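Q: What structure does this chain adopt?
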Amino acid sequence: MILHHSQNKIASSNARFRVVNAGRRFGKTVLACEEIKGVALYKEARIVYISPTIQQSRDLMWQQLKSELLPITLKTNESRLELEVMNKDGKSSFIQLKGWEAIETLRGQSFDFIVLDEVASMRNFWVGWNEVLSPTLIDRKGHTMFISTPKGFNHFYDLYNMHEKDKNYESFHFTTYDNPNIPPEEIEREKLSKPENTFAQEYLGSFRKSEGLVYKEFRRDVHVYNDDSEKQPTNIIKRMAGIDFGFTNPTAIIRGSKGHDNDYWITGEWYKTQKTDEQIADVVSAYGFDEVYPDPESPSAIAELQKRNVYCKEVIKNKDSIKNGINKIRALFLQNKIHIHASCTNLINELETYSYPEGKVGRNDEENPVKEHDHALDALRYMIFMDEPVNIRVQLQQESNVSRNREARKSGYE
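A:
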């Protein structure tokens, strides 16, 4: 297949890590297919294509790759979405398709080329990339192409700007208009039928804040600091942490300090998958926090903390705790009372992607946000919301007791 001019610019790059930010129908997946074919034909290669789900990988890439490589295909595995093909030297190359939700199965493998498609929709991206995928490139000095249309200022935004600090990265930005095979009048029709922000993001590849964003008050230029910032933590009265436990999903430990002026300084994060309660407790105890606010739904993990003499404070959950915690944090952002160190990349990404359900904008007081992009945010919420005067905690406990009594009465009636 012949690539159009803008696709060729990307294909001609020798950068080890290419980040492609492009509008819908630019031809991102066609480009990915051609890149996979080229690598498979010209060396004895191991290649993996990954999209957000295995079904998307099947729909977007499988039939296209299978049909175009049919003349040189040695083996096909339909259920596993794997191909073995003969390269120009008569040797074989191996291609597999995966869904992001199953990348843990790639641990211990090695690759010459990885294609990540629709990166902006991949949950817990940095954990998956740093802990699973990046190590698979080391022994073969492999390359990666990251492809996506933006989805707010999330991890894809940071990835797109990676070239500013790592010379191995090169970033590309193209719009739907850059595909000469798409009639401009069709794009204009889409423009007239969509909100300005939606069109700018989806067709122009412009980074815009997500619709229904929970923490609209958060701004990187106001609330993020680094070691060179003029304002730094001072007059600290206590060192604290919030913990959201996980295993397959990440465990998030948010480290913070509180000053005499009641400012909260978020000084670091620990964001890891596949860690046991004992390992987590070892990490937390090593920091020597004055107070720790752990998720109460993991009593075994809390018991491990207490074995190490970690001072665990109570975190109360009830039907309004999420809403009230969000409102507390939003108010602190408005007052510029929360300062987040730039190293907290997962927390910052979650602040910029945590959203209410689609179609529910305007009903935020009645709805909890979508349960994703929230591990670090939950840890932050436990710490900040429960760090309140005693009477607030008593009020929450009373509300919780009322709710339990109501449920008990209801069960009795039944």
